[in-house]
Structure formats: structure tokens, C-alpha cells
Amino acid sequence: MTHQDIPRADDQIDISAFIGVLRRQYRVIVMSVASIIVLAVIYLFAVTPKYTATALVSIEPNRGVLSEDVSSQNNSAAISAQVEGEVAILKSSDVLLALIAEANLVSDPEFGVTVSRSAQVMAWLGIETDTTREAGAAVTDILRRVGDAVQVRRRGLTYLVEVSVTSEDPERAAELANLLVSIYTTRQVENKIRQILASRDILAPRIDSAQAELERLQTEADRFLENVVNDFVENSDREDLIGVRDRFSLAQGQLDGLRQQSAALRAIVEGRGIQADQSDLLSAAVLELAAQREALQRQLETNPSASGIDAEALRAELANVDNRLREMAARDRDASLAGISDLTQVAERARAELREAALASDLPSADLSMFYRLQQESATARIDYENLLRRLRQLETLADVQISDAVMASSAVMPSKASFPNSQLILALAIVAAFGVGVGLAFINEFLIGGVTSEDQLRDLLNAPVALPVPAISTPEEGDVTSQIWQAPMSGFSESLRQVRRQAARLTRPGEGGRIYLFTSAVPEEGKTTAAIAFARTLALSGTKTLLVDFDLRKPSIAHRIGAPASTALLDALSGRATDADLARCHFHEPETGLDILVGGGRSDLPTDTLVSSTRTVQFLYKLRKEFDAIVIDTAPVLPVVDTLYLTPYADLVVMMVRYAATNQRDVRRAAERIRGDMHQGVHVLPVLSMERRGKKAYYYGGYYSGYSSRT
In which band, very low, low, confident or very high, does the pLDDT at 152 lie, cut at 50, 70 and 90? Predict the structure, then answer.
């Protein structure tokens, strides 16, 4: 019978199997959930709460004052891009560094400089460190911490920007949020003013150039006109025009003198003194005060204390004379300026009369063309100069009245509730994660690393056609569990062994001679000896001539289990030191079941794998096939020792015992792979799940490598 002979329904989702996994692994799930929730609670109590304060900033593009910029942005996409740019500026390192400096965060216990453990150790050892590099690293760390604490985001598609600062101190959080907005708006105004002043500096040289060009054109036009007018007056016999010209010349001469006088008086007012060639331009009173000042200055320079003169009094008198001299010079300069203004009007009127008279006469066309050209160029230069000058004055005014494009729509207030940690969210996530981790660990424990807990799981694990359970039963301590086969034939334990007998009959191929049933396990303490004895008794009670052989040569235990004395006869027969007749010493017959048993005992002088792989063992098994209908062999575990693998090729069925929820699934799979590697084609492995729980003593391999009973 092959695997295909037994129907399987693996393509369906078995909800009951899923629930069964959860039920069997509920301890793992409960421990996982409890552990994660406890850790979450400990974290909530241990972590330092943090508070977040949020200020609201309104971005209003093109809030220029007195600006003639008509290129205002009406494109929503452009405005949106500008708002996003302002968000980036608010979070820029430049603004954050200004916040660090303004709020003195360098010495702040939360954001400030912290000495690393390595630096502390080096300082304790007296090792000098690079302070420049450490200072740079400290600033970088502070900037990183402040950057992590500051969050700037746009609120939807509006022009509102949220500026949030998170801190352990709620009052500090609100203070830093408001300060950050204040620094940002102040720097924005400063940047605007800086741009305006830069434009002014670019415009100033152009204004100077335009002024020079205007003066050049006006001078050239006046000079040309004066030449024309002088020629006209010289060639004219009109006495009135000659008088006007003389008046104009007199006014010009007087203007020159007043201008020189005004310049000299201005030098005195500004404290630059009197030049030698300017004395005739000044009044007698001014010259007298200047002479007094010179005398006082000489007295101070010639060590007045030696002459018995008070230096402080001299300095006070000198200061008084200076003040009087400046006041008198200022009054005389005002009078000069007034005279300049009057004479300028007289000269302008005289010039206008001469110009009108000359232009009204028959001047040559070339002179008229040149005059009008110079006049037009002068007018154009004046307009350019006035425009540039007006723009300069406007820029200077704009620099004084600039406002920010961002305004504080809502200042940050001290938060009353911590923003971190979010206890409800963390607990909810912890519960969800705990159940997820618990279920995941349950399935990992169920299907990968944990013990086998159901016959379906065991069947899928070994890819076997069928798997059977053997229930646990309660017996008196040191009692023989397998005696239930004839003492309680209707018990669940006895019925489970009859199920094993039935499946063994179905899976065993027909052939000549008795059938060999090999009982083994992956590791010790799996219940293989108990199952072998019970199975053999079940076969014997069914009328099958059955022999039970204790082929676990490392640690034979059947003799102890059935209450018979141990014997080395089997070891001696396999090693060639005893005859078949000597086997009678280890042969026992159970009258209750009709079962024949070959018990073991003692310790071999040869490696046991040498014995089980020898020709004598093969001949021994061949002989047993002829004498019995069924031979049940109890062998050693597969993983600790190799003995069983030498017997596997002679088996008609291998019954592999697995202890409930005890044996690692990797060990079970590895053992089955080794067994199948040595089995003949068509021979099956029948996995049986022993529901009996293992005792407190865990299984170990060392006993199977070196543990023998003493030879008796």
C-alpha cells in the first residue's frame, strides 16, 4: 500500500486545526501577550514624557509696503511653492542655529552639550583630545537634537504653517516655538532690508553718473548760450541788453565770492580751521575770534603749568572760543547762503532776459539747432536723474518700513497633556503586537521548534500516510503500563494499540516468513520500549505467534519492565561466544498473552554497531522469521547511536515513537530521514504519538554512547 492509497484533504483550510494549534499552544500565546504588555507598561513608566507646543504661522506673499512691484503672484501653484519654500526655511540649519544661540540651548540640560563616555574616560586618563573637533561635534549634536524636536509642516493646502517644538518641559516647548517664529519673521525682515540696501548700493553709482552727465550737459548748454548771447549783445546797439549783461556779470562775480566765503565758513563750522588764503573772505569778528583761539592753543602747547596758568581753565576758555567761533561762522554762512540765493535769482533773471532777447532775434540756424539739441539732451538727462533719485529715496523709505511675509496667526501655549508617549496608542499596539507575536510563536513552536502535539501534525511532519496516538494512562508508581493490554482490554490504551496493530497490518507488505516490526525513536525517553511491549502483547493476544526482542544493546530495559532477570545471552550469541542453545537463558514466555520474549543485559566488549551489522545478526533475524509470525524489535534511538540504522533494511515496518509536546521537530524529521535512507522500497514508517508526558529528567545522548549495565 502506497501513500496514495490513503486519501488526504490538504487543499482545504481546516479551521478546527487552526483553533487546535491555538489551544495547544495557549501557554506560549499567554506568556507572549503578558510579556509584551508588561514590557509596554514598564516602558510607559520608565520613559520621560514630552510635551509639544504648536504655533500657527500665516504666510502672506507680497506683503510689501510702498512697493511698486506689480508682478504680484496670482498663480496658486507659485504661491503654494513659496509656502513650501518658507516651510523649508523655517526648518533650515541657519534658523535653528539662531534659535540655539538666542535661547542659549548650548547650556540647556535637554538639548545642550553632553560629554561622551569616551571623552570622560580620556579625560580621566589625562589624554588630551582635539577640542576643535569636539566643539564641532557638540554643535552638530545640539543641532541634531533641536532639529529632531522641531517639526514644521504645512496645514493642508492652506497658507498656514504649524511650527511645533517638543520638550520635556511644557513651558519650555511653548517658549521655543514662539521664539522660533519670532526669529524667522525677524530674519525675513532683515533679509528684505538687506536686499533693498543692496539694490540701493547698486543704484547709487548710477545716480552719481546721471548727475555728472546732467551737470555736463547743463554746463555745455549754458556755455554755448552765453557765447551766443555775448556775440549777440556785442553786435547789438541796445543799451538795455548791455545793462542786463553787466548786471548778470556782476551777479556772477558776487556769487563766486559768496560761494568761496560760504565754503570757508563751512570749514570753520566743521572744525577744519581757516586757510591762509581765506582770511580776506571772513569778517573782522570771525578773524578776531580765530586769533584768540590760536593764542589759547599756543599757550596749551607751551606747558602752561610751568608758567603758573591753570590748564583746565585754558581748555575751558578754548572750548568757549570754539563754540563762539562756530556760532558766528554759522550765522555768517547763513547770511552768505541767503545772499547766494538772492544773487542766483538775479543772475537767473538776467540770463533769462538775455536768452529771450537772443532767441527772439534772427540767430543762425546752426546755433538754434545746437541750442535746442543741448536743451533736449539736458531735459532728458534731468528726467533720468530725477527718476533714479526718486527710486533711491523710495528704497531708503522701504528699508525703514519693511514687514514680514509671515505673521503669527496663533502663538504657542503651554500644553497640558504629554504628546509622548501616547499611552493608549502604545498599549493598543502592544496588545495587537502581543497577540500577533504570540500566535506567530505558537505556530513556530507547533511546526518548527516545538514538540509534536497532534497526530495530524506528526503525519504532516513526516509526510506519512497515517499517524496514530497512544493515550496516557494512570498506573501505580513502578507499575507495568503494558499490563493493561490483558488486564483492561477495553481501555483506551488497549484500543489504541489495536489501532496500531490494524494500521501495521495494512502498511506491511505480504511476504514469506514472519514480519519484523522495528520500534525506535529519534531520542531517548520517547516511550518506544513501552509501545513495543504493548504492541507485541496485542499481537500475541490476537493469536499471532509473536517474539519480542530487546535489540537496544546499549541500554536494554525490557527485562526490567517485565520483571525478569537481565541476561547477556543475546550479546554472547551475537558476538559468537554462545550457541543457540544458550539463548534459552534470555528467553521468557508470558502465559497471560502467549508472548515470547528475548531480554538483554550486560555490556559488550565490542562496539554494538559491529554486532548489529554482523553476519550473525542477519542469520539470527532470518532464523526468527522462520520460527515466528511476527518479530517485534525494540531498538536504540536513531540520533544518539547508529545501531538502529543497521537493522532498518530488514524491517517490514518501522514504528517511530514521538513523545507528546517534548521532542524537537527538527530531531524527529532528521531521524525519519535517516531511517528512510536505509529502508527497502515499499517499507513504511508508522509514526505513533505517545501522549504520556516525559518526566522531569530530560533526555540526553551521553547515556547511549557510554551507558551499559554491568555484565552479569
Answer: very high
